[in-house]
Specification:
Blueprint (H helix, E strand, L loop, with lengths): L17 E2 L2 H12 L7 E9 L4 H14 L5 E6 L2 E6 L7 E5 L6 H13 L11 E9 L2 E9 L5 H20 L10 H12 L2 H13 L21 E6 L2 H14 L3 H16 L4 E8 L16 E8 L6 H17 L5 H7 L13 E5 L11 E8 L6 E6 L7 E6 L6 H18 L13 H10 L12 H11 L4 E5 L2 E4 H17 L7 E5 L4 H12 L3 E4 L6 H11 L4 E3 L11 E2 L21 E7 L7 E6 H14 L7 E4 L7 H7 L1 H4 L2 E4 L8 H10 L4 E4 L1 H9 L7 E7 L6 H10 L1 E8 L9 E4 L13 E2 L3 E6 L12 E7 L5 E2 L3 H7 E3 L7 E11 L5 E6 L3 E4 L2 E4 H10 L5 E10 L2 E9 L6 H9 L10 E4 L32 H14 L18 H15 L5 H6 L3 H9 L10 E5 L8 E4 L10 H5 L6 E4 L14 H15 L4 E6 L1 H15 L4 E7 L15 H11 L13 H11 L8 H19 ...
Parallel strand pairs: 5-6, 11-13, 15-24, 17-18, 17-19, 19-20, 23-24, 25-26, 26-27, 39-40, 42-43, 42-44, 44-45, 45-46, 46-47
Antiparallel strand pairs: 1-4, 2-7, 2-12, 3-4, 6-7, 8-14, 9-10, 13-14, 15-16, 21-22, 22-32, 27-28, 28-29, 30-31, 31-34, 33-34, 34-35, 36-37, 38-39, 41-43
Pfam family, one: AMP-binding
Cofactor: pantetheine 4'-phosphate
GO cellular component, one term: cytoplasm
């Protein structure tokens, strides 16, 4: 924490003015930010019923004003800062306003009071207070008080109000007027003494420890917490039963009732904010032990009190924990919250010290006036930044609750809901043994959202899917059932062919609850197979033949199908009996066999498992029939519909595409195998086949809408599921396409979809909800203890109802873990989806994302537990924990905390992890601890884990002016604690591509010279970068060759040749994983606008061969991704023809030019989108990025260094893409007399004839390595973990031969 103030606040100045006290200073700046804001006007009125002696009241008021000199303050801004002075001229007088002639005197008085409260005060001119006595009748008066908070706090107003009552009563009874107030100067002096007292230093030290690792301040609402000019208020009186139980429960726990009440309200706030811990503001009088205890003035402080989750503890025990913390905070409560904000660097912006404010005021009771019935009404109590819960009363005669909210954050409905819900929460909490058993939702909300919103009961015929299909076959025999590439099957033909195959399957053992696997591409045969399997009584199991054989084997071992229906050339994938279409019967030899019931399985689909083992989801007929019959009726499907089938059978969306047409006599149009990824093909099919209904994953919908030919399409319905559908996608859809758009949600474990939302053109929801439950289905949003949550609170999404899966095939352990008893309906089950969601007030459900423990850093999803396991298996540490820290906004890093012997060398641990984990999972920092910190209940205290400190003291000091400048920039950009040395490496100190861009910009600003990102990557040490800067000019890292890794100069380097975009920076991950070997990047000459366009790819390859020879003599190792691989083969040919030795030639998912001659030429937009692939993103996943500004903004947000490219460089990328694509189409390969090592993107090109074997004609041998990724991901950190070891292995073999 910072030191105490250098100037004594409150000290006298020559003019007779005084500086503001600490308590006033913060309020002053709040007011100065918005001088016209009247929110700091504290106002109330006292209702006096009975015969009031107005003369005695005047005398009592006059004496009070004489004593309370704070009411005569004015405030000014001068050379010494904001100040105050006592000015008797501004002393307020009592106004008397007679409203007895008004039709409604009370309303008239209230309107005048509210208008005055809403009027800003002239603090320099005064008066800062106003007092009015409204005469409503002979025996009814309102006494109105309004005082600016700079002059007085809430307790001071109580003192002033009670003092008038005390004097009035004394005058009337003749018993004396009580003790006068101490002068305002006494409060000033006491404050000045505290500033220089050891108590303040001790208080500061307490808060330094108390607020260490302060959690992020959370609110009960989203948005910016800035005080508005007014606030919303909802007032309720707690029942005597409630505050009676409150007092009794507090006595039982041996705590005070205000502290117990504060703890309960904090628990409510924390749970509503979905936080593990909450920091609440708790007002503190600041008068205990002070000479200013009875001085009307501003002394009240707001303490930031931390309330952790103790809901699992007995309530009495939890109350004691929170009470002890409150007591400790109050003991040090004179230390101002304004100073705490300065100490913690929370001044300005949206940096907050606490969220909700909880204010229990047992002293705030109506004043006593002899002979009168008195009640108190609060109009304004000061600024409401967020939400304030105030309780007034002694809990003996009364206890009132006011919920004041910021109207910019909370609606009137929100405020009322918090008021009603908190009362219900308090009632339940005070009866509970522990708060974990108390629902946050109120009784009304429990009924509304658990039961009313899930009242989806609907009668559905108890039939199987087979029975429904056969009805349609019988009623629409001549109608077209299936169309595929010009071929048509009528329902009669589908009936005959599927029945024939069904009889054949029965002979092979098919029947109820037996499985038949399907491994067929989209075709008529696939449809016949699926219908036949169901008609045999069995359930179908779809397989994707592009998956690794090992995974398929594990699935088959688990599922034990009776037979596999697949094409002949898939036989090598399976050890099971394969029945290809060529051996299917054309007619059924018998038709009698056991049929399935609604309780039998209809299909089993395997999904990925968290342990890496696929798990089979078992769906019964009853479940899928409910889903399909609901869809048929809800969306009014009929025989005129034509439904497009394009989803792979291994994804459950395909289920309704396959079978819904057969429930209503509609036509199923099957897309060709290669069409589902091609927007142009899909648009053509929609027009040519008059498609009425189809499905898109939202990302594919975006790609589809980016296709120009889509504009103007008309369809009846488009369904989206599988990903979050955004409001932007909805709006773009309705601008381009005429038709309905529907957002569906559902996991595989619940028969495709369980909720629906119409994303109509008039819908303005953002985010789009996943909506409402379908028939006979329930959606619950529950907390960690399966308690229902109210609208707006994030929780776990659970599903219930008829569509739930039977479970996981052969995995009773997983089934019991995810399928639980329904806590609200006896005998029913619910499924834990693993998704987070929240309810809207109307009951619609909004999807919020996953609840797993993964983190995402630089676009890569990382399982921290995997890193922890790797550390522990190293055998080098005793304990370890890994977290993602964000010590700088937007800069998230992995940090490992280890407990180990002092002899542990962190570098040894880092090397051990490098052998097991990809580089992007290696922690950026390792922190050695004597022991892992734990909370009071023995759990790991993650908030107590310290920020990593990097030791940068070893080495010589920066000496030259450029080195010293760079040292300063390194320190500022990386926020280092110490000065870096001349040898300090930017990336070793924690730098990354994003901060390297910042460094570039700062160097350019300070020196006028731009080193270019390439220079920082190649020369990350201060001394080396300084030498680069000494040379005039810069190529912005766009020169023809850049060094990516310096490495061991005795080893032959690897030359990585650019992809279509011309830039080689994207190889940084690969370069870093190639051990000690030097790595260079070859870049396109077209990055420079002065360079002429190459005549041919062969001439470009010849120039690259010459460039490579200028930088190395010896054997040449080449590699390239995509176009870079084509160039690598051509350069290898050129070098070989010149008589030079060529070693490794690695092609990263590159294919010969023959494959691309017929492809259309890319335009400038496509060329610019190549930047996405260079940055490691799949352009198909971001079809919305079609402008330069959008792409650059995305790359900057993602943290890619490419986002910092100047416009000239972007123009160079476009030139390079256009040129290389032209050159590729005109190039004819020559033979390379050597081995090409081809790294194939094994998850891509499923529908294209792109194989490594295509290179066989252009080399002596092709070696193939499969990489589990898509083409755009080949240079990503994940893919490099497969590629780099293979390259190093090849280089090692060459070294053994003496050629590397």
């Amino acid at each position: 924490m910072s030191s105490l103030s250098a100037k004594p606040i409150g000290s006298a100045m020559p003019s007779g003015e005084h500086l503001l006290t600490e308590a006033q200073a913060g309020l002053w700046y709040v007011q100065q930010i918005d001088p016209s804001n009247p929110i700091l006007n504290a106002s109330q009125y006292v209702e006096l019923a009975g015969e009031l002696d107005i003369d005695l009241f005047r005398r009592a008021f006059a004496q009070m004003v004489e004593e309370a000199d704070c009411l005569s303050l004015t405030f000014h801004s001068g050379a010494f800062g904001p100040s105050q002075r006592l000015d008797a001229i501004t002393r307020p007088s009592l106004e008397i306003v007679d409203l007895r002639s008004e039709a409604d005197p009370a309303s008239a008085a209230l309107a005048l009071m509210q208008a005055d409260t809403a009027r800003p005060v002239n603090l320099g001119q005064g008066p800062v207070a106003r007092f009015t006595l409204f005469r409503l009748s002979e025996d009814r008066h309102y006494w109105y008080e309004r005082i600016h908070h700079l002059a007085i706090d809430g307790y001071g107003i109580v003192l002033v109000t009670n003092r008038v009552g005390e004097i009035y009563s004394g005058l009337k009874s003749g018993t004396g007027r009580g003790t006068p107030f101490a002068p305002f100067a006494q409060a000033m002096d006491d404050g000045a003494v505290y500033l220089s007292d050891d108590r303040r230093r001790r208080d500061a030290e307490f808060w330094r420890h108390e607020l260490a690792n302060l959690p992020e301040v959370v609110s009960l609402a989203g948005g910016r917490a800035v005080s508005e000019h007014s606030f919303r208020r909802e007032t309720r009186f707690l029942s005597k039963d409630l505050f009676g139980v409150l007092v009794a429960r507090a006595e039982h726990a041996k705590v005070t009732w205000p502290d117990l009440l504060t703890a309960l309200v904090a628990s409510y706030c924390r749970r509503f904010a979905s936080a593990a811990e909450i920091v609440a503001g708790v007002p503190h009088m600041g008068r205990l032990g002070s000479k200013a205890a009875r001085v009307p003035c501003t002394l009240m402080n707001v303490l930031p009190v931390r309330f952790e989750n103790t809901d699992h503890l007995p309530l009495d025990e939890a109350a004691v924990i929170h009470t002890k913390r409150l007591m400790a905070c109050r003991r040090h409560g004179r230390y101002r919250s304004e100073q705490l904000r300065r100490d913690l660097g929370l001044i300005g912006g949206q940096r907050r010290l606490f969220g909700p404010l909880i204010n229990v005021q047992p002293f705030d009771m109506p004043p006593k006036f002899d002979g009168l019935d008195v009640s108190l009404h609060i109009l304004g109590a000061g600024a409401v930044d967020d939400i304030t819960f105030t309780f007034r009363g002694d809990a003996k005669t009364s206890l009132m609750m006011e919920v004041d909210s910021n109207p910019a954050l909370y609606s009137e409905e929100d405020t009322k809901a918090h008021s009603a819900r908190l009362i219900a929460y308090l009632e339940d909490a005070l009866k509970a043994e522990r708060l974990a058993d108390v629902a946050l939702a109120s009784p009304y909300e429990r009924q509304r959202y658990l039961f009313d919103a899930n009242a989806t009961s609907h009668s559905v015929e108890d039939v199987t899917l087979v029975e429904l299909i056969e009805r349609t076959m019988n009623t629409h025999p001549n109608a077209p059932a299936v169309i595929f590439e010009g071929q048509t099957l009528t329902y009669a033909e589908l009936d005959r062919r599927s029945l024939a195959l069904a009889s054949q399957l029965v002979e092979k053992g098919a029947g109820p609850d037996r499985l038949v696997a399907v491994a067929l591409p989209r075709s008529l045969e696939l449809i016949v197979a699926l219908f036949a399997i169901l008609r045999s009584g069995a359930a179908y199991l779809p397989l994707d033949v592009s998956h690794p054989k090992d995974r398929l084997s594990r699935i088959l071992s688990s599922a034990q199908p009776v037979v596999i229906l697949g094409v002949e050339n898939a036989a090598d994938l399976f050890d099971y009996a394969l029945l290809p279409p060529s051996r299917w019967r054309s007619d059924a030899q018998h038709t009698e066999w056991p049929v399935a019931t609604t309780d039998n399985l209809a299909y089993v689909i395997y999904t990925s498992g968290s342990t890496g083992e696929p798990k089979g989801v078992m769906i019964e007929h009853r479940a899928i029939v409910n889903r399909l019959v609901w869809m048929r009726q809800h969306y009014r499907f009929g025989p005129a519909d034509r439904i497009l089938q394009k989803t792979p059978a291994t994804f459950d969306v395909s289920v309704w595409e396959f079978f819904l047409p057969a429930l209503c006599g509609a036509t199923l149009v099957v897309a060709p195998p290669e069409a589902h990824r091609d927007p142009l093909s899909i648009a053509r099919i929609i027009r040519d086949e008059n498609i009425t209904t189809l499905h898109f994953v939202p990302s594919m919908l975006s790609a589809f809408m980016a296709e120009p030919s889509v504009e103007g399409l008309e369809v009846a319905r488009v369904f989206c599921s599988g990903e979050e559908l955004t409001a932007e996608q909805r709006d773009r859809f309705h601008r381009l396409i005429k038709g309905e758009l529907h957002n569906l949600y559902g996991p595989t474990e619940a028969a495709v979809d369980v909720s629906y939302w119409e994303a109509s053109a008039s819908d303005t929801s953002s985010p789009l909800p996943i909506g409402w439950p379908v028939w006979n289905t329930r959606l619950y949003v529950l907390d960690d203890h399966l308690q229902p949550l109210p609208p707006g609170v994030a929780g776990h999404l659970y599903l219930g109802g008829v569509q739930l899966a039977r479970g996981y095939l052969g995995r009773d352990d997983l089934t019991s873990d995810r399928f639980l008893p329904d806590p609200f309906i006896e005998g029913q089950r619910i499924y834990k989806t693993g998704d987070m969601a929240k309810l809207r007030a109307d009951g619609a459900v909004v999807y919020l994302g996953r609840s797993d423990h993964q983190v995402k850093i630089r676009g890569l999803r990382i399982e921290l537990g995997e890193i922890e396991a790797a550390i522990m298996t190293s055998g080098l540490v005793r304990e370890a924990v890994v977290i993602a820290r964000e010590d700088r906004p937007g800069d998230k890093r992995i940090v490992a905390y280890v407990v180990a012997d002092p002899s542990l060398a962190i570098e040894a641990l880092r090397e051990s992890l490098s052998a097991k984990l990809p580089d992007y999972m290696i922690p950026a920092a390792f922190v050695r601890l004597d022991a892992l910190p734990v909370t009071s209940n023995g759990k790991l205290d993650r908030r107590a884990l310290p920020a990593p400190v990097i030791d940068i003291s070893a080495g010589r000091r920066a000496s030259s002016p450029l080195e010293q400048l760079l040292a300063i920039l390194f320190k500022e950009i990386l926020e280092l604690d110490g000065d870096p040395t001349a040898e300090s490496d930017f990336f070793s100190l924690g730098g990354d591509s994003l901060s390297a861009v910042q460094l570039c910009l700062r160097i350019r600003t300070e020196t006028g010279t731009d080193p270019g990102l390439g220079a920082i990557f190649e020369h990350p040490a201060i001394c080396d970068l300084a030498k680069v800067l000494e040379k005039a000019g810069s190529d912005e890292g766009l020169g023809p060759i850049i060094r990516l890794v310096r490495g061991d100069e005795t080893l032959a380097p690897v030359f990585l040749i650019h992809p279509a975009g011309g830039i080689a920076w994207g190889y940084r991950h690969l370069a870093q994983q190639l051990g000690r070997r030097p790595v260079y990047g070859i870049q396109s000459p077209r990055l420079s606008k002065e360079a002429a366009s190459p005549e041919s790819l062969a001439s470009l390859a010849a120039s690259y061969a010459e460039l490579i020879r200028q930088n190395h003599t010896g054997i040449y190792h080449l590699a390239g991704w995509s176009v870079g691989g084509i160039l690598a083969q051509a350069v290898a040919v050129e070098l070989q023809q010149q008589g030079f030795d060529v070693g490794l030639v690695a092609l990263l998912d590159s294919y010969p030019c023959d494959c691309w001659r017929a492809e259309p030429e890319p335009d400038e937009t496509a060329a610019l989108r190549a930047l996405l692939a260079i940055a490691g993103h799949d352009p198909l996943e971001h079809p919305e990025l079609i402008t330069k500004d959008a792409i650059i903004a995305f790359l900057k947000q993602d943290g890619s260094s490419l986002g910092g490219l100047p416009d000239a460089a972007l123009d160079g990328v476009i030139r390079s893409v256009l040129d290389t694509n032209r050159l590729v189409r005109g190039h004819y390969h020559k033979r390379f007399d050597g081995t090409l090592t081809h790294f194939r993107a094994a998850l891509d090109h499923k529908d294209k004839n792109l194989t490594p074997a295509l290179w066989a004609a252009y080399c002596a041998e092709v070696e193939t390595v499969d990489v589990a990724c898509l083409h755009p991901q080949m240079t990503s950190a994940g893919a490099v973990q497969t590629i780099a070891p293979e390259i190093l292995s090849s280089l090692t073999l060459l070294e053994k031969k003496g050629t590397a």
